[in-house]
Amino acid sequence: MSINFRSSQRLLAGAGFAASAVIISQSAAFAHVTLATGEARTGTYYKAVFQVPHGCDGAATQTVRIQIPEGVIGVKPMPKAGWILNITRGAYAKSYQSHGKAVTEGPKEIIWSGGALSDDNYDEFVFTSFLAGDFRPGQAISFPTVQQCAKGEVRWDQIASDGQNPHSLKSPAPTLRIVADASTVAQAQMDHSKMDHAQMGATTQSGNDTFTIGDLVVVSPWTRATPGGAKIAGGYLKITNNGKSADRLVGATSAGAHHVEIHEMSMNDGVMKMRPLTDGLIIKSGETVELKPGGFHMMFMDIKQQLKQGDTLKATLTFEKAGKIDLSFNVRAIGASGGAPAHRH
Predict the structure, then answer these.
(1) 64, 52 contact by CB (below 8 A)
(2) Where does the YncI copper-binding domain start and stop, copy by copy (predicted)?
(3) Which of 129, 167, 173, 187 is least crowded, fewest Cβ atoms below 10 Å from its Cβ?
(4) With the C-alpha atoms ordered 272, 278, 284, 290, is the resulting torsion angle positive or negative?
C-alpha cells in the first residue's frame, strides 16, 4: 500500500512549520527509538509503544516507518491526529492460528506520515499485536524503524546477533525481549532497584555545579525534564583536565537509571549517526571536553521515574586514572538547550 499525501496547501503549511522548527530548535538529546515495554511472553497480546525522543539534527520528524517482524500478527496501529496512517500488508512465512482460524498474511510495515514532530518534543507511536511466533525465552525481536525528517533521516535498523547487546550497535532497532513468564519481568525490575553504588571515590564539591577529583574539574552537569512514560534522558557537562597527562571517561552509573552509556552523535551525508564510545572518552592534558546536545553526551537508559524541572539526578562517573566522582545533574526544562540556565528574579 503506497503512502497517501495531503493537499498541496496542507503540505506547504507543514513544510513551513518544519523549516521554522529547524531554524529555531536546538539539537535534542540524542537517544534510540525504544519500546516503552521491552519484555513480553510469547503467546500473549502485546501493546507496542515506540518512543521517539528527537528529530534529525534539529529537523522535525515527518514520517515514522516501523517494520513488523515475522511471528508478530494481528497488528492494529493507533491513528494519530495530524498524521496519515498507512499499512503495508504481505504474506507471512508460515501460517498462524488466531481465534481458531489460520492466518497467512497481515501488516508487514506501519507508516505514519505527514506529521511535524518538533525536535524539542517527544511522542509515541502505538500498535497492538499478538506474539504468535515460536519465540524462545531470552530471544530478542527487532522492529527496524526509520525516522524521515524535514532534513535527513535516522535509520534504527541494525539487528543484534544472538547474545549481542543491542546498545553496542551504532543504530539499533527497537528490541523486544521474550521472557519465560510475567514474574521474570517483575524480578528484573527488583534487581535493578538493588543496584549498589556505595563504592565511590573521594571527591570534592567546590560549588553547586562544580566537582573536582584529582586534576579533573567537572562543571555544570545537567539533563532535561522528561515527559511522563519516557525511559531515556541525556546527560551534559564539561570536563577540564588540569593535569600533565590525558585521562579517559570510561563509564558511569546512576541509581535513577538501569544503566548509563557514553555516546557520540554526528551527521554523515545527511543521515544522523550515533555510536557508543566503548573505549571511553579521552580528555587530553590542558583541554576541556564538553558533553552537549548534538555531540558527545551521556544517556541515562531505562530511567526509573519521570525527571521534573528543578529536581536533581545523582550519578557517578568513572575515570581511568582519577577514579570515581559523584555528581548531581540539575534537571532543566523540557527542550532546554546548552549554556547556563536563566536566573530567576
Answers:
(1) yes
(2) 32-178
(3) 187
(4) positive
Give the per-residue pLDDT at 222. 94
Q: How confident is the model at residue 295 (pLDDT cuts 50, 70, 90)?
A: confident
Lowest mean pLDDT segment, chosen from 91-105, 119-133, 193-207? 193-207
- Angle among Cα 35, 272, 218 to the nearest 5 degrees reads 85
Torsion over CA: 80, 336, 301, 308 (sign): negative
pLDDT of residue 169: 79
Report how far apart the first and last C-alpha atoms of the chain are (Å, whole number): 56
Residue 274 pLDDT exceeds 60? yes
Higher pLDDT pick, 341 / 294? 294
Of 269, 83, 65, nearest to 148 by C-alpha is: 65
User: Residue 342 pLDDT > 90, yes or no?
Assistant: no
Residue 171: phi and psi, rounded to 5, are -135, 70
C-alpha cell at 162: 544472538
If we measure between CA atoms, which residue out of 63, 62, 37 comes closest to residue 51? 37
Walk me through the domains of the chain, giving residue ranges and CATH numbers.
8-188 (2.60.40.2230), 204-332 (2.60.40.1890)
Q: Is the dihedral of CA 13, 18, 22, 25 positive or negative?
A: positive
C-alpha to C-alpha distance for 232 and 126, rounded to whole angstroms: 18
Residue 205's DSSP bridge partners are 211
- CB neighbours of 202 closer than 8 A, spacing ≥ 6? 213, 323
Q: Where are the alpha helices (DSSP H) in the chain?
A: 8-24, 182-193
SS3 191: helix
**Rounded to the nearest 5°, which phi and psi values hold at 227?**
-65, 160
pLDDT of residue 181: 54
Other C-beta atoms closer than 10 Å to the C-beta of 246 total 14
pLDDT value, residue 62: 95
Backbone angles phi, psi at 46, to 5 degrees: -135, 125
